[in-house]
Each structure stands twice: as C-alpha cells, then as structure tokens.
Amino acid sequence: LNLKQIYQAALEQDATIRASRAATDAGRERLPQAKAGLMPQISASASRNNNNLSSTSPNLLGTPVTSTDQYFSDNRSLQLRQPIVNMQRWLQFEQAKSIVEEAEANLDKDLQNLVVRVAGSYFEALLADEQLELVLAQKTTYSSMLDAAQKAILAGSGTRTDIDDARSRLDMAIAQELEARQNQDLTKRQLQVLINQPVAKLSALNVGALKLALPEPSNLDLWTQKAEDASPEIKALQARLAASKREVSKAQAGHLPTLDAVAQWSNSGSENITRINSRYESKSVGVQLNIPLFSGGYVNSTIRQAVAEQMRAEETLEALRRDLGVRVHKEFRGMTEGVLRVRALEQAVRSAEQMLKSTQMSLKAGTRTQLDVLNAQQQYTLALRDLAQARFVYLMSKVKLAALVGDDAQASVEQVNAALSGQ
Question: If you write DSSP's letter for every residue of 300-314 in order, what string do you get?
Fold first, then answer.
C-alpha cells in the first residue's frame, strides 16, 4: 500500500470522516427547515363526539324538571396560513444559510485533517520500519564484532574489554529491537484503524524521487494571508460569526409584529347545545395581525444572550487567526529549514560512513581499537536515523502547510506519493 491508497481507503472507512459527513448532512437540513417557515402552512382536523346532555329547568308550575338527551356532534376544518410579514422567520432562513456554510467548512476541515492524520501515521510507520532495520543492522555488526573479539582473545591478541564492550552493545541492540518491533506494530495498527483493514507492507520512501523544494512563494506573509483567505477553519468560524449576527437580529425581531393571511373552511354538526341536530358550514378569508406587548423580559434576555454569543464568535475567530499564523509560520519554517537540515544530514551520513571505513582500516593496521569501530558504527547509525527522521519531518511540514492554507487534499497526497518507491 502507498500513501494514496491509504488515503483513498481512509476517505471511505475512517469513522471520524463518516461522522463528519453525517454532521454535514444534518446541517444541510437546516436550510429546508427554515425555508418551510416561510411557506404556506396547511392543517386539517376532524372530530366526532358522543354527547350526553342533562338539563334542568322549571316547568309551568315552577318545579325543576330534568331532561336528558344523547346526540353526536362532529367538526371538520381546513386552514391555510401564509406568513406575510414575519422578520424572525426570514432572519432564521438567512441564518440557516450560514449554518450550512459552517457545516460544509467543517467537513472540508476534517478532510484536510484526514490528510495530516494519514500522512502522520504513514510516515511514523515508515520511520518505525527504518529504525528496526538500523537496529537489526547494528545487532548483526555487534554480533560479528563479539565473535571476532572472542576469537581474538582465544588467539591471544584480544582483550576481555573488547568482549564486554561488544556484548554490552549487543544486549542494548536486542533491547532496542524489541522496542522497535513494538513501535512497528503500533504504527501499523494506527493505519489499520484509519482504513479498517490489515496493513502488511507499505511503500518505502524513494530517496531518489524525493524533491527537496522550498515553499513557493517564499514569502511567509503571503502564506499567512492565503491561510486566512482559504483555510477551512477560518471559513467555518466566519460562517458561525455570520450566523451569530443573524441570531442577534432575529432576537431583536421578537419585538416586531407579524402578519399572516388566513383562509379557513369548517363544517360542523350539533356544534352547541342550543342547536342540536343542526349543521353549519363556515368559510373565511382574512389577515391576522399579532403584536407582542409584554413577554416578561424574555425578548430582551435573548437579545443580550445573542450579543454575547456574537462577541464570543468574534473573539474565537480572532484567536484562530492568530493561532493559524503561528502554525503557518511553524510549518513554513519546517519546510525551509527542513531542506537545509536534510542536506546537512546527508553530508553527515557520508562523513560518518567514511569515518567508519577509515576506523575499520585503522583497526586492521593496529592503530585503532575495536571500541573505536563500535563508536564509529554507532555514530553512523545515529546519522542514518536522524536523516530518515528529517526527511519525514520535511514531508509532514509540506502536508500540514498545504492543509492549513486549504490546498486540494488529493493533489497534496499525490505530490507526496510521488516520492514513494514504485510511484
């Protein structure tokens, strides 16, 4: 599996992304719900009742007489109500547009974060594989040197110190191997969680295809401005702020009257006790004006609450802008300094390799000891480890910077994927 394949699988299988898609689908429904408040409302009702009526009244002689009657009554009605002037519902419709924009932006943010999570887990797994290979190479070297030291002491030309030193380093390499294998298993499992399938082998980094390039443009301020203009996080909070402003206006509209057009038809039988066994049909068309007078301070309280929520949205957006600038600066420096660090470590690896060869030749000439060879071998291994880590840090900075400024996630994955073996 390569990075692109892992990312494509994660798009379908990652639980966080599926939850985000569901949240976005739920957010989209806010618009038709708000629109429904501006549409005609049609309701129908029907009822049928069995009535037992007892009435007491005086007769001609003034004596109370009680009579009973049992009858059925029914009612059928149909009502059409169309809002004509209702600022709260109109503002709620406008607010729903901002809520949908926020939901869409949150999905984009989660998709950008998925690229970072996938790349981070992928490179951690590759680094774990490389660390295990280095540890195994060290283990093989130390085993050979321990064997050579034991043979040398039997031949009378070695020392006990050489054996102890080689054995000590071999024991440490064995312990490091256990840790490296555990880390390798953990990183593979992290990828399995993302794609919900086993991960056997990953495409390794192709050093020859890795292009170390500085960010383009090379101006940090331009990258920061691009992030503020296109970042999904910024867009989500901007939409939330717009919704908060609509909420203030909607709360203030609680003081305003509403006007509805109403059309109603009703048909009833035996509707009241004075007209038993009579039927009535009523048709009416008109307008209804509702004027709020006093609600116990509820409207004023909702206005204050909405203003406070708007202020919170404004400050949250400002805090995100500042934090986003810091993160862009970090990843921008990660790329620019990463190029220099990788090149410096490549030179350090070449120097350490040459030092190891020279020390081995000096050991054969008798001017160096086995301890010197062991130290040179360890320095070479550490340089290889640092170089591998620096390359992955550079690639991660590249992925994170692209995510922060809202670049196309698929294109970002393909660029990094081109640096893997077999691509």
Answer: HHHHHHHHHHHHHHH
